[in-house]
Amino acid sequence: MAQDNNIENMTQVDGAYDASQIQVLEGLEAVRRRPGMYIGSTDERGLHHLVTELVDNSIDEALAGHCNQIEVILHADDTVSVRDNGRGIPVDIHEKYGIPAVEVAMTILHAGGKFGGGGYKVSGGLHGVGMSVVNALSEAEHVEICRNGKRYEQDYSRGVALGPLKEVGQSDTTGTYHRFKPDSQIFETTVFNFETIRQRLRELAFLNKGIKIIVKDEHEDNKKENVFFYEGGIIEFVEYLNKGKSVLTEKPLYFEGNKGTSVVEVALQYNDSYKETMYTYANNIATHEGGTHLEGFRRALTRAVNEYARKFKLLKDSEPALSGEDVREGLACVVSVKLEEPQFEGQTKTKLGNSEFRALTDSVVGEGLSIFLEENPNEARIIIEKCLMANRAREAARKARELTRRKNVLEGNSLPGKLADCQDNDPSKCEIFIVEGDSAGGSAKQGRDRKIQAILPLRGKILNVEKTRTDKMLQNAEIRAMITAFGAGIDSEFNIEKLRYHKIICMTDADVDGSHIRVLLLTFFFRHMPELIQNGHVYIAQPPLYKVTNTRSKVNHYFYNDAELREFMDSKDENERKGYTTNRYKGLGEMDYNQLWETTMDPASRTLLKVTMEDAIAADQIFSLLMGDLVEPRREFIENNAKLVSSDDLDI
Question: Which residues of the chain are under the pLDDT cut of 50?
Fold first, then answer.
């Protein structure tokens, strides 16, 4: 029997099991042996978590009222630094360990001011492992502390101090500075992504009003700087979420309340879209699975809207109450709570479990929203009317779904007739190509691997779902065909366990129309099946733009952009070039099935682009901007970005 964890490794050899078999991992060796236990993974996501750990420590100083500026720099040598103007980590000798307190925090797990000692009342760094984990997973780390009018320095490598803490001069400021280089022995990559870091820092600035966060990239080919500072906090967060949308109230509604040291902040604003945009946080940690604060908010919102609608006869006594879905349609909302001892639950530990926040959030939102509706009858009527329209549309959508289901049963076939399905029943092995047009669909059906590849041809362009309610959307034959073929449902009924294909591949022409169809498909997936993107099931096929044929050998060469073609032709002398003919494909239908298989569909040789959603907020904005009703923001975006488009971009 073997038990294995981060502290000791117990093994049984030939029946012997004694003290010699106990291996104690000294210092931070446990972190280096199993980094995934502390930062989730050793890929790019885990790498960026190192920056988050250090920034969270600075945010904790800000929450305690001792810091108002944080600076993060991606240096040209691929190191990262984090500086704050907080109190500075204590440098006095720790009574138990006999070394400076900063060295204790840097080299010993679960050592910090977040365990009831009065250092922090509210903290995002829950386990006291942040600095020590970053230190353990860095091949080099330099720390500077300004405190008590003096400046101190110390260097570390892979969790071990390289020398004692030194006093190196005077200082008229306070704060902490870390600069570290991730360990290439641990991480799959040690190159940081500026955009990933920028997104998280922007989010933290929204959640902590009045804190200035500066992020810089000093790489020569990518120099840039952003400064985030939001005095309005989550009010400005909601305004940012609604950017490019038509809003129903001039300003977001804001409610705040507390009970002891527990604090609730809620900002919300309705827009004229058909989707709910909701973000919840506990101590700045995104609670993707919701929790008690979200439950309290939803309960209060539904109750307050229904009570007002009944009181002023906007909803008749004979009519059923508005549902939670009805009152949340078109709602952009941020719920942020701060508490001393958060309890996280759920599969990914991102669900708040503190029961007291259900009642506290309910009370704060219920009272605040009721007062707003009473004092602002015009805005209240607009909001209630939107909720009533949502209710009617939802009922129509329910009937449309039932009609579709009954039709499938009566026809005796639940799959669309145009679908050429694959033979294998294992979704993890199966893929479906969404193909533009019957011509390309015919070639794809002939050239596919029938065992694992299904083909669904689309006729023309599907509806722009950004401008369409669900009931109208479900009347579109092409959209119904995709929903039926995928088998997982849509919206609140979506169940990824029922998905019939684990690769959904958009295969459209490499021209403007093809790009438009692809964007329409992605808009549909993002708005009604976001889990497909979140779980990495959506891909974009990469058909070639050019076929270059050697007229003598009849060998074909395929190129996917202008640069590849130029490089190939430039490698030939003038006489050789005369022996080649070049054809530019206008569409997939121009390829025969062998060419389509060889270049675009063969898993052994094709190139697929996986569609990801690293920044859901930015994705929501860009879909609203480019696919929504407002013309002026879209024109402004095009004018500001047109100069950034190259001829290669137009070919994608």
Answer: 1-15, 17-25, 114-117, 125-128, 409-413, 645-652
Record the pTM. 0.75
Tokens describing residue 367: 């009272």
Residues 280, 223, single domain; the answer is no
Active site residue 172: no
Q: Who's near 516: CB < 8 A, 6+ residues apart?
A: 461
Of 61, 329, 509, 598, the active-site residue reads: 509
Of 511, 564, 590, 602, catalytic: 511
242 and 278 together in one domain: yes
Q: Does residue 513 carry a catalytic annotation?
A: yes
Point out which residues pair with 228 in neighbouring strands. 213
Phi, psi of 254 (to 5 degrees): -135, 130
**What range defines the domain where residue 386 resides?**
235-394
**Confidence at residue 97, expressed as pLDDT on a 0 to 100 scale:** 86
Please indicate whether residue 570 is annotated as part of the active site: no
How distant, in Å, are the alpha carbons of 98, 99, 100, 127, 416 from that of 95? 6, 8, 9, 21, 73
Distance CA 462, CA 480 (A): 10
Question: 109 with 72, same domain?
Answer: yes
Residue 511 appears among annotated catalytic residues: yes
In a domain, 556, yes or no: no
Confidence at residue 616, expressed as pLDDT on a 0 to 100 scale: 64
258 within some domain: yes
Digit-coded pLDDT (tens) for 199-256: 999 999 999 999 999 999 999 888 999 999 999 999 999 999 998 889 999 999 999 9
Residue 639: inside a domain? yes
Among candidate residues 307, 438, 513, 615, the one labeled active-site is: 513
Residues 496 and 434 in one domain: yes
Query: Are the C-beta atoms of 647 and 562 separated by less than 8 Å?
Result: yes
In the chain, what's the furthest Cα-to-Cα distance? 87
Q: Is the separation of the CB atoms in 142 and 179 below 8 Å?
A: yes
Given a contact cutoff of 8 angstroms between Cβ atoms, the answer to whether 284 and 352 are in contact is no
State residue 484 phi and psi, 5-degree precision.
-65, -45
> Same domain for 196 and 245?
no
What was the pLDDT predicted at 20?
Answer: 45
The rounded distance, in Å, linking the Cα atoms of 599 and 548 is 13
